Amino acid sequence: MIFIVLPAYNEEETIGPLCQRLKQVMKEDKLSYRVLVVNDGSKDNTAKIVARFRKKMPLEIIDHRKNLGLSEAIKSGLINASKKAKSGDVIVTMDSDNTHTPGLILRMIRMIREGSDVVIASRYQHDSRIRGVPFFRQIISFGASFLFRVFFPIKGVRDYTCGYRAYKATVLKQALRHYGEKFFDQPGFSVMVDILLKMRKLDIIATEAPLILRYDLKHSTSKMNIGKTIKETLALLIKRRFLEEY
């Protein structure tokens, strides 16, 4: 079984097309799956649009009454999926803005079956492509990749920030048992980096699959506050490197 976690906040323009693409791809690839949409206090029609797909595909909604941020949305989704998952299952996280191509899931699942514990959809692998991402955002992402590769090297990993990942369910369960609530103690977008750093301590086998990032298909407003995210990411690097063991 493949559990697909989609944190969503005000994604009424993109969540429908993404669910449709997921439904088509999973049917074509003949994969058994369940989608868990974490509606993080959306004020638009995200919840209504997602609800329409419950009759068309195996999907459930996890509702946050108010917007709690990406960290809490990822926490709700991963904990829920981990409770449902059995040995041999895989848990996938994706963005809900339709920029992550569902067709990559099958390749990531195969890499898990081949022995990886975590597979990251990477912007820095041969054959990866980026469409529509502002140059300034690309520079920031590359800078973060460089810093974390220098201070927290993980064999086979170059993209520390991308949220499109596949986790072996048993390994994710192990991480949750080891860290408990502290597994999600970083705010905002930096939670994705911190999850990877913490799993690094468990001696995981991590690999990357080349990502075709379709930012040109994103019609919703970006939820990332660039300045705040930079500060949080740098604070995380300093915290984990010099101040606090994890």
Per-chain topology:
Blueprint: E1 2-8, H1 15-28, E2 33-40, H2 46-52, E3 59-64, H3 70-84, E4 90-93, H4 105-113, E5 118-122, E6 129-131, H5 135-151, E7 165-168, H6 169-179, H7 190-200, E8 206-210, E9 212-214, H8 226-243
Structure characterization notes:
41% of the residues lie in helices and 18% in strands. The longest helix has 18 residues, at 226-243. Strand 1, helix 1 (15-28) and strand 2 (33-40) form a beta-alpha-beta unit. The protein has helices at residues 15-28, 46-52, 70-84, 105-113, 135-151, 169-179, 190-200, 226-243; strands at residues 2-8, 33-40, 59-64, 90-93, 118-122, 129-131, 165-168, 206-210, 212-214. The chain has 246 residues and is an alpha/beta fold. The mean pLDDT is 90. The chain has one domain (2-243): Alpha-Beta Complex (Spore Coat Polysaccharide Biosynthesis Protein SpsA, Chain A).
- Determine the oligomeric state from the structure: single chain
Strand order of the largest sheet: 3-2-1-4-7-5-8
Outline: globular
Total E-strand runs: 9
CATH class: Alpha Beta
The rounded Rg comes to 17 Å
- The ordered H/E elements are EHEHEHEHEEHEHHEEH
- What is the total number of structural domains? 1
Averaged pLDDT: 90
Low-confidence stretches: none
The CATH architecture: Alpha-Beta Complex
Q: Separation of termini? A: 31 Å
Percentage of β-strand residues = 15-25%
> In CATH terms, what is the fold-level topology?
Spore Coat Polysaccharide Biosynthesis Protein SpsA, Chain A
Task: Spell out the CATH superfamily.
Answer: Spore Coat Polysaccharide Biosynthesis Protein SpsA, Chain A
